[in-house]
Amino acid sequence: MDVKDNxxxxxxxxxxxxxxxxxxxxxxxxxxxxHQADGKMRPSSCWPIRCLKFDYGGNWLAIxxxxxxxxxxxxxxxxxxxxxTESISQ
Length: 90
Prior knowledge:
The protein is mostly beta strands and 90 residues long. It has no helices and ten strands. The strands form three sheets. A four-stranded antiparallel sheet has the order 1-2-3-4, with no helix packed on it. The chain has a four-stranded antiparallel sheet with strand order 7-8-9-10, with no helix packed on it. The protein has a two-stranded antiparallel ribbon with strand order 5-6.
């Protein structure tokens, strides 16, 4: 869970990240991280969201799940680069 301005990001064991508007109490965006292992796509539910962090300016959200960190553009509402890691994100 991380808070930036009036937005709250939460991660779940179902592999989704939700971005909430704290003023309205409504879910603004649902982000699913796709994973690939052994050349096959794995459903996001196989990899829970383990960590979340907004950057200082609130333009990016880093989402750690499985063996990667996905950057999410808050401005564009789309996935940015995906960074593979050596171990499971904590």
